[in-house]
Amino acid sequence: MYRPPAFREDRIEILHQAITAYPLATLVTSGPCGISANLVPFTLHSGVGERGVLQAHLARANSQLADLRAGAEALVIFQGPQAYVSPSWYPAKRLHGKVVPTWNYVMVQARGRPVVIDDPDWVRRQIDALTGQQERYQPQPWSAADAPAGYIDGQLKGITGLEIAIERIEGKWKASQNHPASNKAGVIDGLMAEDPHSPMALVMHSLADSKS
């Protein structure tokens, strides 16, 4: 991933926070049929290994499983907040006009060797962890125990587990760090005018606070 110094993020705790907040990732593999990519929600076990372990489940009918079973390195791409940045938000536009549009975004890329796990008990635990993570803020959290046991057992027969011990991980926080403070403030104002709860504006605020 292209990462100019201003946008690099290598703090493992920050990378892990982004993965947990945005768990739906693009799983990329390469095999005899070429490059495959699928959206897959992952759970992160940050305390396992040096960089953490990613776990997920896939449909047994998914053709990408052939690549995963072969054990070639997989790339998992987590996409965080993103936003178009208009040049009209920069005070510099009014001063000299030497500005262009851009896009701000947060991205984490993790790489590792995939292990396919066919144990239904393992898959059930992974599903429980994933749904527990996502349902915890619901007024009435759902769990697999709410569905008939026979129905859940039938669903488990159609999926298999996936585990990736993270061997390499890197992040890119592109949030106007290469602009003067006045332009950053203008971007934040522009984003919040569109959405008072803009996730990208919150990212920019947090980066400013971390350097203050």
Can you give a write-up of this model?
The protein is α+β, with helices and mostly antiparallel strands and 212 residues long. The protein has a single domain, classed as Pnp Oxidase, Chain A (Roll). The protein is built from seven helices and ten strands. The chain has a six-stranded antiparallel β-sheet. A hairpin with a 7-residue loop joins strand 4 and strand 5. Helix 6 packs antiparallel against helix 7. The longest helix is centred in the middle third of the chain and has 16 residues, at 120-135. The protein is elongated, with a radius of gyration of 20 Å. The model has no long low-confidence stretch (mean pLDDT 94).
Question: Key features?
Answer:
212 residues, alpha+beta, Pnp Oxidase, Chain A, 6-stranded antiparallel β-sheet, 4-stranded antiparallel β-sheet, 33% strand, elongated
Sum this structure up briefly:
The protein is of the alpha+beta class. It has a single domain (5-82, 103-175), classed as Roll (Pnp Oxidase, Chain A). It has seven helices and ten strands.
The CATH superfamily name is: Electron Transport, Fmn-binding Protein, Chain A
Uncertain stretches of 5 or more adjacent residues: none
What name does CATH use for the topology? Answer: Pnp Oxidase, Chain A
Task: Give the termini distance in whole angstroms.
Answer: 28 Å
Task: Give a count of the beta strands, DSSP E runs of length 2 or more.
Answer: 10
Total domain units = 1
Q: What percent strand?
A: 25-35%
CATH level 1 class label? Mainly Beta
Mean pLDDT score:
94
Order of helices and strands: EHEEEEHEHEEHHEEHH
Largest sheet: 6 strands, antiparallel
Name the strands of the widest sheet in spatial order: 1-10-7-6-2-3
Structural class: alpha+beta
Shape: elongated
Count of helical regions? 7
Q: Approximately how much helix is present in the residues?
A: 25-40%
Radius of gyration: 20 Å
Please tell me the CATH architecture by its name: Roll
